[in-house]
Specification:
The structure holds 2 protein chains of 2 kinds.
Chain A (H helix, E strand, L loop, with lengths): L1 H33 L3 H13 L8 H27 L5 H7 L6 H16 L6 H11 L6 H15 L15 H23 L7 H24 L5 H19 L2 H14 L2 H6 L1 H9 L7 H22 L2 H31 L6 H5 L9 H27 L12 H7 L4 E2 L2 E2 L4 H15 L5 H18 L4 H17 L9 H17 L4 H5 L3 H6 L3 H18 L6 H10 L1 H4 L8 H5 L2 H8 L1 H21 L7 H15 L6 H21 L7 H22 L3 H18 L2 H18 L3 H16 L6 H16 L4 H11 L22 H4 L15 H16 L4 H21 L6 H19 L20 H22 L12 H7 L4
Antiparallel strand pairs in A: 1-2
Helix pairs in contact in A: 1-2, 1-3, 2-3, 2-5, 3-5, 4-5, 5-6, 5-7, 6-8, 7-8, 7-9, 8-9, 8-10, 9-11, 10-11, 10-13, 11-14, 13-19, 14-20, 17-18, 17-19, 19-20, 20-21, 20-22, 22-25, 25-30, 26-31, 30-32, 31-32, 32-33, 32-34, 33-34, 33-35, 34-35, 34-36, 35-36, 35-37, 36-37, 36-38, 37-38, ...
Chain B lengths: L1 H4 L4 E7 L7 E5 L5 E8 L4 E9 L5 E3 L2 E11 L6 E12 L2 E3 L3 E7 L9 E2 L3 E11 L6 E10 L11 E7 L3 E7 L3 E3 L3 E11 L3 E14 L6 E14 L7 E7 L9 E4 L3 E13 L4 E11 L5
The chains are: A mainly alpha, B mainly beta.
């Protein structure tokens, strides 16, 4: 440690010493320049530059020093320019003068300073200066010093590089290109050489230092890309070959990785598109330790991104047309492919996917020959493409924004393009060949790398060739084979591989508008099934969210089958699931003990099942029969899901109920709709029973039974409806034990039954009696009272005003119809005011027996409402006197509840006791009711209706209401 | 000069013709003083006036006044002994009396000046005009230095110097200087190829060495003087590397190469290529170059 620290400290000291020397000399130099003493100024500059001769600084510190010097030299440059233009010193003389400096580093810095200023002067021998500076710079072979010197050279000359086309002393673009290229090559050599200096034990440190310095080398490539007027021909003919040759021949891992990456990033996509062959074959020649996949992936990603960008920036109409065409082709292909699959399925059963793969036709069998063919082809294309692009590309200068000029190119080029890729550049095929070759040539390539490559290939294919399903399928098939091949390797289960495979499978999901397209990819699901649980799960999530996001309507049973098969992992318990779902499956009672994590997992489960449930609603078909088929198919999948049915079945059931409604709405159009609907209802009944018995979801089961009963009622199936009610009751009896839940259930049952119209008297009577009975048997008095109050409505079915009142016997004779044929005589609308009155009386009795007076009063008030309602509705048995006396009753005791002398404990604070209100609320309630009665009375006027007999004057007075 | 010390009653002034129009060469005289000498070329006439003034208006008798043009080689280790290889003399006045200031013209027509003036470490070759007033007591001598440059015709053959040198299995280089003969304002251009590098070289420099040889064996004196050290490479080269050389000579204080001047001395120039390795060992190769003068402009 100490040996390590000491030099660092020293370096720090050395650096600050050097910096202070520089500072002093800069001061001197500036003073001399002000006095026009050029020789002295140069001497100071030279002394300052001598600091750059040090060997004891780390690259970072040297950089700091360099920056200080660089800033200082700018003053000198400015002075030199002015002195030359004002005729005080001629730069040509100065260029010679500075060469007397005895040390090479200061000498060359000065030469470059003078030379580059000279280059900026019109009519200067630029070409010669460039050549000379480049040549003389060879003298510095020390890696760090050399790199910085050449960097200085490149920085200083950057703005003065000639870009003309004419020969002559002023130089032309070719000179500039070879200047920058040479500088690049030399810098790279120096950079690589740095690796081989010093002790081998410092290797890591040196590698780090080299990484610090790499930007210096890379800048040259950036310069090349920024040179105005470089066209494809030059790039293809000169620039790229030189770069690649240097990269390959330097045989250095860091350099190769970095430089290839830089090449990919700095040059335009246009160039890359036309030089794939050379680039990729150079890639294959790199050092074995080079992370080739990174390079290939970077290139693929870049081109894929380009295509995507291009698609966005294209003329919208053109894009639309192309996309539509692609989508059409895609749809046709999907259709064709799927019919073929279907035929296969129907015919000789599932063939192996590998054999099926041959159907795509274009699967390369002999990559070697085809590679050469493609590569050979490339140059011949350029003749046409290059010329047309050359004109338009020169606008793109900045290294990042390369695509500006490209849009023009797209329009101008005669070669048709799709998403910026010329149609005759077989992007995918070239990459495919190269990647396959690469994998073959490099058996040491790990599965991580292979999969990563494949991910990129998929992305490329998806963005550039959205309609070429076979490409994606090809990749998937290859991945499948590879995964099998590496079955025994531990790498297969490394997180990287898993992630790669996941993104490989994810890409098509995200890319295709409809996930149904996946079903046409034969080799998708085999590969999917090979994935570990977590991958499959996340992919299923993606798949479903894609369905939901795009609202993909799934309208064929096979599709439902396929999609659910792909989401298999969410639907069934998996053998390789990490313990989770299986344990959770067992009911709410056990989960408390298991604790936080489990609850969390439960929540997750609920969420993902919720998605599936949402997806169920997208299983929609125009044809009702098919729709039913869809649901049945879905059911077949869901029924294996264990506890998941809790979430999935309700969706399925509601969907089925919706289907029933659709049948009902089209009852005149659909033949035999009744048999079909009854079949569906039976299907529904089954599902609900399962829900009730297997996953213990009684309350939802109850509701669904009631819902089903309702629809069955609407459709007019008395027996079925009866049965459904019976089911609901049995669910209630068997499984609902909590008193509040019971109240709710009873309320629901009553509510539903009240609307039932299909029943004959008998059935209806049985059901409503049962319901009332259950209501009266609730545990808590207030609940009982509430339930009995509600139950009263069962004997008073009302016909909605818009409904046509069915022809009916006198409503007051329920008993009379009893013996009539149950089928024909409908109970609806069942009205029996005596029973109603009985119920209300009973409710009052129950209320009376409540322990707390406040509860009694509250219940009285509630019942009063019911009385008023029935009075209003004209129930004969409910007479005004009941109302009067009840009002009296409440009136007399309402003081008790609000009087302050009640013991505090009697006055239950609101909210603490369930269903108990504050005295104020009760009072207000009562007052409102009185108001209501008064209004009714007033409205009735003197017509002699029943309201006349209602006398609530006392109460009104007491409550302080004036008429 | 000695005249001053004896507080001679006579002042002698030597004035050369068109002195103002001539170039001057500044040379180091005795005691760090700088002397400006007018520049003459070979075959050029040397003319001027000698003015003799008598102090305090005294009358002075002399036994003749003469003016001489002398070329001499002075070897410092042999002080006092001046070898005069050229001596021309003219009588300005016959013995007589001097009453007042008197001016005499003199002219040495088309003097052949065989050698160039040179001032080295151990040797000095000088030309001067000497006026001697002979008296019985207290003769007066006055000298005036002039500087002489002479051009030689540019050599006919001027081959480049190219050579492969090395240490077996250690270092092989090939160097090339574009010429073997350079004029004073010339520029040395060359390159060095590294054919084999097995040692860690730190840097490489090219120096110009002036070697002055005086006397003749066995009493020969050699003095070497490094005119300049010029770093031409920084860092370790690898096989196949080519390092360029460019060295401007104009800025250095060089003389032409002199060989066996009057059998008294030689001044030769060498290019010394030095490679220094990481342990500061020096590997070098010297190569003589010839330097000559060409007419300026």
């Amino acid at each position: 440690m100490s040996t390590d620290l000491a030099p660092v400290m020293d370096e720090g000291k050395l650096l600050s010493e050097s910096l202070s020397t520089v500072k002093i000399q800069v001061q001197q130099m500036k003073r001399h320049l002000e006095l026009d003493q050029l020789m002295d100024a140069l001497k100071s500059a030279s002394l300052m530059l001598a600091e750059l001769r040090t060997s004891s600084l780390s690259p970072k510190q040297y950089y700091e020093l360099y920056i200080a010097v660089f800033d200082a030299l700018r003053h000198l440059s400015n002075y030199l320019y002015d002195a030359h233009t004002q005729g005080r010193h001629h730069l040509a003389d100065l260029y010679e003068l500075v060469q007397y400096a005895g040390n090479i580093v200061p000498r060359l810095y000065l030469m470059i300073t003078v030379g580059s200023v000279y280059m900026s002067i019109p009519d200067s021998p630029v070409q010669e200066i460039m050549k000379d500076m480049m040549e003389m710079s060879r003298g510095v072979l020390h890696p760090i010093r050399g790199l910085f010197l050449r960097h200085y050279l490149s920085q200083q000359t950057r703005d003065h590089l000639p870009v003309g086309a004419t020969d002559g002393p002023a130089g032309n673009l070719q000179d500039s290109i070879s200047f920058v290229l040479t500088n690049f090559i030399e810098m790279n050599k120096l950079w690589v050489r740095l690796q081989h200096q010093g002790h081998s034990r410092d290797r890591e440190k040196r590698e780090m230092e080299r990484r610090d310095l790499r930007i210096l080398v890379g800048t040259n490539l950036v310069r090349l890309s920024q040179l105005d007027g470089v066209d494809l021909d030059m790039y293809q003919g000169t620039i790229l070959p030189s770069i690649l040759q240097q990269v390959v021949s330097c045989k250095d891992v860091i350099a190769q990785e970095y430089l290839m990456e830089v090449v990919i990033q700095v040059f335009t996509d246009e160039f890359h598109l036309h030089t794939l062959g050379p680039f990729l074959s150079a890639t294959a020649q790199l050092h074995p330790k080079v992370n080739i996949k990174q390079i290939v992936i970077a290139l693929i990603d870049r081109l894929a991104a380009y295509a995507a960008r291009e698609a966005e920036s294209e003329d919208p109409e053109e894009t639309k047309r192309q996309e539509e065409a692609a989508a059409r082709r895609l749809a046709e292909k999907v259709k064709a492919q799927r019919t073929r699959l279907r035929q296969q399925m129907n015919g000789d059963g599932p063939t192996s996917p590998v054999a099926g793969g041959a159907e795509w036709g274009s699967v390369p069998t002999s990559p070697v020959t085809e590679t050469t063919a493609v590569v050979d082809e490339a140059p011949s294309l350029n003749g046409t493409v290059a010329e047309t692009t050359a004109a338009s590309v020169d606008g793109s200068e900045s290294e990042k924004v390369l695509d500006k000029g490209k849009e023009k190119a797209t329009e101008e080029t005669s070669v048709r393009k799709f998403r910026g890729v010329p149609v005759d550049v077989k992007l995918f095929e070239v990459f495919w060949q190269q990647v396959v070759e690469l994998i073959k040539a490099r058996p040491d390539l790990s599965i991580q790398d292979i999969t990563a490559l494949l991910v990129s290939l998929t992305n490329l294919s998806l963005s550039c060739y959205p309609d070429r399903l076979e490409y994606v399928d090809q990749v998937l098939g290859f991945a499948h084979d590879k995964v099998k091949e590496f079955n025994t390797s531990a790498d297969l289960h490394s997180p990287q591989t898993t992630t790669n495979l996941a993104s490989l499978l994810l890409a098509p999901i995200n890319s295709y508008q409809s996930v149904l397209t996946l079903l046409a990819l034969q080799r998708y699901s085999p590969l999917l099934t090979l994935q570990p649980f977590s991958t499959r799960r996340s992919l299923s999530h993606a798949l479903i969210s894609s369905v939901l996001k795009n609202e993909t309507v799934i309208d064929a049973p096979e599709d439902v089958d396929g999609i659910l098969e792909l989401c298999h992992v969410l639907i069934k318990d998996q053998t390789d699931a990490a313990g989770g779902v299986l344990n959770v499956a067992r009911g709410p009672s056990s989960e408390r003990r298991i604790g936080g994590q489990m609850t969390h997992e439960r929540e997750e489960l609920a969420e993902e099942q919720g998605w599936i449930a949402r997806m169920v609603h997208l299983f929609r078909a125009e044809s009702l029969d098919v729709q039913f088929e869809l649901l049945q198919t879905a059911r077949r999948h869901f029924e294996t899901g264990g506890d998941r049915m809790r979430f999935t079945y309700p969706a399925l059931i509601t969907s089925a109920i919706k289907l029933c409604r659709r049948y009902k709405n089209r009852e005149h159009l659909e033949e035999e709709w009744q048999t079909k609907v009854s079949a569906i209802l039976k299907f529904i009944r089954q599902l609900i029973s399962i829900l009730h018995t297997q996953v213990e979801a009684p309350s939802i089961a109850l509701r669904l039974f009631l819902l089903a009963a309702q629809i069955s009622d609407e459709c007019g199936f008395e027996d079925l409806t009866y049965d459904l009610y019976v089911q609901a009751f049995s669910v209630y009896e068997e499984s609902i034990s909590e008193s509040r839940a019971q109240l709710q259930a009873i309320t629901l049952i009553i509510g539903t039954l009240q609307g039932a119209r299909v029943f004959g008297e008998d059935n209806y009577d049985t059901l409503i009696t049962k319901a009332a009975l259950h209501g009266a048997k609730l545990l808590k008095k207030p609940h009982q009272a509430l339930a009995v109050n509600l139950a009263s409505h069962l004997w008073w079915q009302e016909v909605a005003p818009e409904e046509e009142v069915p022809v009916k016997e006198a409503p007051e004779k329920p008993a009379a119809t009893k013996e009539d044929g149950a089928e024909t005589a409908k109970a609806y609308p069942h009205q029996d005011s005596k029973r109603v009155l009985e119920c209300l009386q009973k409710a009052l009795r129950i209320a009376n027996s409540a322990t707390e007076e406040i509860v009694t009063i509250q219940l009285y008030c509630d019942t009063l409402d019911q009385y008023v309602y029935y009075l209003d509705r004209g129930a004969p048995a409910v007479t005004p006197k009941f109302v009067n006396s009840l009002v009296e009753l409440i009136n007399s005791s309402i003081d008790n509840i609000s009087s302050p002398d009640v013991h505090p404990s009697q006055r239950a604070p609101p909210g603490l006791l369930e269903g108990v209100q504050t005295p104020e609320m009760i009072t207000r309630h009562f007052r409102n009711t009185l108001h209501n009665i008064q209004t009714k009375k007033n409205a009735a006027g003197e017509s002699g209706s029943r309201w006349d007999d209602v006398d609530i004057v006392g109460a009104l007075l007491k409550m302080g209401i004036t008429r | 000069m000695a005249a001053y010390f004896f507080s001679s009653p006579i002042d002698v002034e030597i004035k050369l013709d068109d002195e103002e129009a001539r170039k001057f060469v500044e040379i180091k005289g005795e005691k760090e003083a700088m002397i400006n000498c007018p520049l003459y070329y070979d075959e050029e006439s040397v003319s001027g006036q000698v003015t003799v003034r008598v102090r305090d208006g005294k009358k002075i008798t002399h036994e003749g006044i003469k003016v001489e043009f002398v070329g001499s080689i002075e070897l410092f280790y042999d002080r006092g002994h001046h070898h005069e290889f050229l001596s021309l003399s003219q009588e300005l006045a016959a013995p007589g009396e001097l009453r007042q200031a008197q001016t005499f013209d003199f002219l040495f027509k088309k003097v052949e000046k065989q050698f160039e003036s040179y001032q080295g470490i151990n040797v000095k070759l000088r030309y001067f005009v000497r006026v001697q007033i002979t008296r019985r007591v207290g003769g007066v001598t006055k000298e005036r230095d002039v500087w002489v440059h002479s051009y030689r015709m540019p050599p006919d053959s001027n081959n480049s110097i190219k050579m492969e040198v090395g240490i077996e299995d250690c270092l092989h280089i090939e160097f090339e200087y574009n010429k073997s003969k350079y004029h004073l304002k010339d520029v040395i251009v060359g390159k060095i190829y590294f054919l084999l590098v097995r040692i860690k070289i730190k840097h490489m420099e090219l120096s110009i060495i002036r070697r002055e040889t005086t006397g003749s064996p066995p009493n020969q004196y050699n003095e070497s003087e490094t005119i300049t050290k010029f770093e031409i490479m920084d860092g370790a080269p690898v096989r196949g590397e080519m390092i360029p050389i460019r060295l401007f000579l104009g800025g250095f204080d060089l003389t032409p190469t002199f060989r066996e001047v009057n059998k008294k001395f030689s001044t030769r120039y060498y290019l010394n290529l030095v490679l220094i390795d990481e342990e500061n060992r020096r590997y070098f190769k010297q190569q003589e170059i010839t330097i000559f003068r060409i007419p300026e402009n």
